[in-house]
């Protein structure tokens, strides 16, 4: 951004008056209109915009649901049924919100694996990436607490199992758990505080998203080649190119979202959650929502309570170290032939862990879970550090332009050159 | 050091005031956290709801497990059969993960009554009675196995099902939440 100083000059008298008092128009102009975007971005780079849309959609539907929901253990289940049956379009609000959580995670996982594939986490984007991991952790906490609110059987027992993870902490574990519950078991105080935090956390996510976008605008976006923008010819202005592409991708994603909401709104849920919470009976087969399954599989793979909990939390915490664990200087996996193989093995292992998390913890499922868990950590702790030392990457293109247009002769006569000058636009 | 450098000034009264103010603010801020954290703990009503509960054992048939609640926590009251008692007593205690003889888990002369907390010590699910390898309990969530004394015999649970405080007030009545000494 520093190489591209804002050229925004307000035209109207009011614009000039306002700009000298709060320069927000020039901030928007330099960040979202004139901002140079690599010209070779694929649709994988539209998921940031899709995620912003999902966050806003969840906040809007959630604020309305909160108007009709009662966070009390004896009334919560009934109030959700009230939303479904009596509130005008309550069924739509609730299905949008419940499926919206899943869509949010679909988008965030694509966003995360795009980041892994193209090495977006590497210098100079480490802080940007770490903020993203923080957002993901906040998303998991928010989604978990939201799932507790309908106070069905899965809500209650999900809350019991997840809060009991903290009882694995030696000495102070039991005290921590009673402070989480506000009682001696999951109960009304637990539901009250989860509702409060479920309302708060999305706004904290929003705050971190602002930092995430800010951190993005310092080095600019990564791109499929992983090499930086070297000249104006490598870039296009954010508006209209990225703006229109993002809007189009959001609309396509909304169609996908709508298909779940209108055709199979309960497919991603569990039938047991339409049974009111009963602290005397645990459902026969208790599984978390699909987006937690890989981590749940890691938890169950370790036949020791504390060990399982440590492994599960480490599986996410190891992400924080990724910029330093990966020793390769080449960002994009497109130019790392050996890493490309390991990347897809890693993707397969994550999907396998997700599948195993949905299966009962018995027989050969446990053995496979243990192997997959071991590989998960090997990927981060062995493959990433070592491969960068031994791998011989493919030659990188000289510029983004060259990767798109092929090697050009001379600097003049590039037909699209004029369009590619961000400085000349807006 | 101080003699060799010319730009290090002597600490002044102002420096002391800065440090004292900063320290007071830090202590004050930390103190203010206390009531907020404490408000998360079980409140007075919840603690009061922990008053002892009386359980009449007469209707509980041999081999039956009854679920009761005390302080919002599930408790199993199990009327053990002679075979179940024998199975629990005939165990090599040293071989257990959480070694405890059966006699330490029941009251003297009341070996047929086993009173244990009803949440798995792994992650809190409710184990299913009369199931699993030892016909004690089996937890459907993550596969922990308990014997007829409520002791962990397999799976991820780290310890035995704990025994709540309780006392026999007569041969057919117990009070949960009250120790023998105060009964």
Automatic annotation (TrEMBL), chain A:
Bilayer topology term: Multi-pass membrane protein
Cofactor needs: heme b; heme
A cellular component annotation (GO) from this entry: respiratory chain complex III
Alphabetized Gene3D superfamilies for the sequence: Cytochrome Bc1 Complex, Chain C
Cytochrome b/b6 C-terminal region profile domain mapped to chain residues: 228-398
Family matches, as InterPro entries: Cyt_b/b6_C, Cyt_b/b6_C_sf, Cyt_b/b6_N, Cytb/b6-like_sf, Cytochrome_b, Cytochrome_b_C_euk/bac, Cytochrome_b_N_euk/bac, Di-haem_cyt_TM
Cofactor note: Binds 2 heme groups non-covalently.
Annotated ranges, domain Cytochrome b/b6 N-terminal region profile: 14-225
Membership in a protein family: Belongs to the cytochrome b family.
Record-annotated membrane-spanning stretches: 43-70, 91-112, 127-149, 161-182, 194-216, 247-264, 306-325, 341-358, 364-390
Record-given protein name: Cytochrome b
Quaternary organization: The main subunits of complex b-c1 are: cytochrome b, cytochrome c1 and the Rieske protein.
Keyword Ribonucleoprotein: no
Residues engaged in binding a ubiquinone: 217
Binding residue positions for heme b b562: 97, 198
Residues annotated for heme b b566 binding in this entry: 111, 212
GO biological process terms on file: respiratory electron transport chain
Keywords: Electron transport, Heme, Iron, Membrane, Metal-binding, Respiratory chain, Transmembrane, Transmembrane helix, Transport
Domain of life the protein comes from: Bacteria
KW Lyase (keyword) present: no
């Amino acid at each position: 951004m520093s190489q591209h100083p804002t050229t925004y000059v307000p035209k109207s008298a009011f614009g000039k008056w306002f700009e000298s008092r709060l320069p927000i128009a020039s901030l928007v102009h330099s960040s979202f209109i004139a901002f140079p975007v690599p010209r070779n971005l694929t649709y994988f780079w539209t998921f940031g915009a899709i995620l912003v849309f999902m966050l806003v959609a969840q906040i809007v539907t959630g604020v309305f649901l909160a108007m009709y929901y009662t966070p009390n253990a004896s009334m919560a289940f009934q109030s959700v049924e009230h939303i479904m049956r009596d509130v005008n379009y309550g069924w739509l609000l609730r299905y949008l919100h419940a499926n919206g959580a899943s869509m949010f995670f679909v988008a965030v996982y694509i966003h995360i694996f795009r980041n892994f594939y193209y090495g977006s986490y590497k210098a100079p984007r480490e802080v940007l990436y770490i903020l993203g991991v923080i957002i993901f952790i906040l998303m998991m906490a928010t989604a978990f607490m939201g799932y507790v609110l309908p106070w069905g059987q899965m809500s209650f027992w999900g809350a019991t199992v997840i809060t009991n993870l903290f009882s694995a902490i030696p000495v102070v574990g039991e005290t921590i758990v009673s402070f989480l519950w506000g009682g001696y078991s999951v109960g009304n105080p637990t539901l009250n505080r989860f509702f409060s935090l479920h309302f708060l956390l999305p706004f904290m996510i929003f705050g971190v998203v602002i930092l995430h976008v800010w951190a993005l605008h310092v080095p600019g976006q990564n791109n499929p080649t992983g090499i930086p923008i070297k000249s104006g010819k490598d870039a296009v202005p954010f508006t209209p190119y990225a703006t229109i592409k993002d809007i189009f991708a959001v609309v396509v994603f909304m169609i996908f979202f709508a298909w779940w909401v209108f055709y199979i709104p309960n497919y991603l849920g569990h039938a047991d959650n339409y049974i009111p919470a009963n602290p005397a009976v645990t459902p026969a087969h208790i599984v978390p929502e699909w987006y937690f399954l890989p981590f749940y599989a890691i938890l169950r793979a370790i036949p020791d309570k504390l060990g399982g909990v440590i492994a599960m939390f480490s599986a996410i915490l190891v992400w924080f170290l990724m910029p330093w664990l990966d020793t390769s200087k080449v960002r994009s996996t497109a130019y790392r032939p050996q890493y490309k193989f390991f990347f897809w093995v890693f993707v397969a292992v994550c999907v396998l862990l997700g599948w195993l998390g949905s299966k009962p913890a018995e027989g050969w499922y446990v053995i496979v879970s243990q192997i997959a868990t071991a590989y998960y950590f090997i990927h981060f702790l062995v493959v990433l550090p070592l491969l960068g030392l031994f791998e011989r990457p493919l030659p990188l293109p000289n510029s983004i332009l060259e990767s798109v247009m092929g090697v050009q002769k001379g600097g003049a006569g590039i037909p699209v050159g004029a369009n590619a000058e961000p400085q000349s636009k807006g | 050091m101080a003699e060799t450098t010319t730009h290090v000034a002597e600490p002044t009264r102002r420096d002391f005031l800065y440090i004292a103010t900063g320290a007071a603010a830090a202590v004050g801020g930390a103190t203010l956290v206390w009531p907020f954290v404490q408000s998360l703990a079980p409140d007075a009503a919840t603690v009061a709801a922990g008053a002892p509960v009386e359980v009449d054992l007469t209707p509980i048939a041999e081999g039956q497990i009854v679920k009761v609640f005390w302080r919002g926590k599930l408790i199993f009251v199990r009327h053990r059969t002679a075979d179940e008692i024998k199975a629990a007593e005939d165990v090599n205690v040293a071989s257990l993960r959480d070694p405890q003889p059966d006699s330490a888990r029941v009251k003297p002369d009341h070996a047929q009554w086993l009173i244990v907390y009803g949440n798995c010590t792994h992650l809190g699910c409710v184990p299913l009675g009369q199931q699993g390898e030892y016909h004690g309990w089996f937890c459907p969530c993550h596969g922990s196995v308990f014997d007829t004394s409520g002791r962990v015999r397999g799976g991820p649970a780290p310890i035995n099902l704990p025994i709540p405080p309780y006392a026999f007030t007569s041969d057919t009545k117990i009070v949960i939440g009250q120790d023998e000494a105060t009964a």
